[in-house]
Design goal:
about 10% helix, single chain, 3 helices, mainly beta, 3 domains, about 40% strand, 14 strands, Porin
Length: about 350
């Protein structure tokens, strides 16, 4: 009966050690490939031996046994904006097959800062996000032009805006392609309203570079009892690894207030982004609003997104709001934490 012993060089390769330096002109081969070639070659040679009647002793060496029982892991690279476009693991032993995270359908497109989404289109079940949006008007004026303050609601046409508006909110993926949101619009330390919203993703197109859906918002104003539902059609399109855009088109109607302006407003939002690298994204967002009488306002907001980690994003911007023939500057920020 043949007795096989473990070759020290073979074991050093399994441990990832190198016996010497790489010579000039040598061809580099991945270490995992070398291991598998050596294991296959050793098994074939041992199986062909005439006296081979028992399990080779080399297979009982701890380094070899632990190597053979390592699971095979497949990991796809991260997308340009820091989110994993493919990430799951497969076990080579069958029963341990477990998927850690499923990819979202469609393109990864940054969210606008001022009028954001309820998680990205194509949300997966269980996704959770908390964020805070803040507005700092540089000039506080009273105006009859519909402003639709994204913090304190649509009834902003007859009163002067406060020096600071902010809104904490939480977003959750109830199931795949459907997410909900709860927000508390505030001015200084006072809760102005309650905001409930839901978003559904229809599907993708153009080889997964386009995705669209719908968003519904219910705004309940605590100051005057008005209720404002809003309905929006959403689209996102990626042109290439750098450039992408988001659009929103819809309308809102205010019920139960004494607002002298038209209660029905038309909304159109366009945002264009350039993802410079995993950390930085730059772009601009436009929010157009008009009533049925033709009176309109436009917010133009250049912005920068900083993504230091996969779960945290800071967005800041300084822009202007055009209304009644004048321009009013505004500073905006949003802090986002995913869980």
């Amino acid at each position: 009966m043949l007795k096989h012993s473990a070759n020290p060089v073979f074991l050093s390769l399994l441990r990832g050690e190198r016996a010497g330096g790489r010579g000039k002109g040598a061809v580099a081969m991945p270490l995992s490939t070398v291991r598998w070639l050596l294991l296959v070659l050793g098994t074939v040679l041992l199986s062909a031996s005439p006296g081979f009647t028992q399990t080779p002793e080399i297979l009982h060496v701890p380094e070899v046994a632990s190597f053979l029982h390592q699971p095979t892991r497949l990991t796809w690279p991260e997308s340009s904006n820091g989110e994993r476009s493919r990430k799951w693991q497969e076990s080579s032993r069958g029963d341990d097959d477990e998927r850690e995270e499923r990819p979202r359908p469609g393109p990864n497109v940054p969210e606008p800062m001022v009028f954001d989404l309820i998680r990205p289109l194509g949300v997966r079940q269980g996704e959770l996000e908390a964020n805070v949006l803040g507005f700092i008007p540089f000039r506080r004026v009273k105006t009859r032009t519909p402003q639709f303050s994204f913090i304190t609601g649509a009834d902003q046409s007859t009163k002067k805006r406060t020096p600071f508006e902010w809104a904490p909110e939480i977003e959750y993926g109830v199931f795949d392609n459907f997410a909900v949101e709860f927000e508390l619009p505030m001015s200084l330390g006072q809760v102005e309203a309650f905001k409930l919203a839901a978003q559904y993703t229809f599907g993708t197109g153009f080889d997964e570079q386009f995705i669209h859906g719908i968003q519904g918002i219910l705004f309940i104003d605590r100051t005057n009892g008005a209720v404002t539902p809003t309905l929006l059609y959403l689209t996102a399109l990626r042109f290439d690894p750098v450039y992408s855009l988001q659009t929103m088109l819809g309308f809102s109607h205010e019920f139960g207030s004494d607002n002298p302006m038209s209660p029905t407003l038309i909304l159109f939002n366009l945002a264009v982004f350039a993802e410079l690298d995993k950390l930085w994204t730059v772009g601009f967002e436009t929010n157009y609003i008009a009533d049925l009488d033709g009176t309109a306002g436009l917010l133009f907001m250049p912005q920068v997104h900083w993504n230091p980690t996969e779960k945290f994003t800071l967005q800041v911007g300084v822009g202007t709001r055009a209304q009644e023939g004048s321009f009013i500057g505004e500073g905006v920020f949003r802090v986002i934490q995913e869980f």
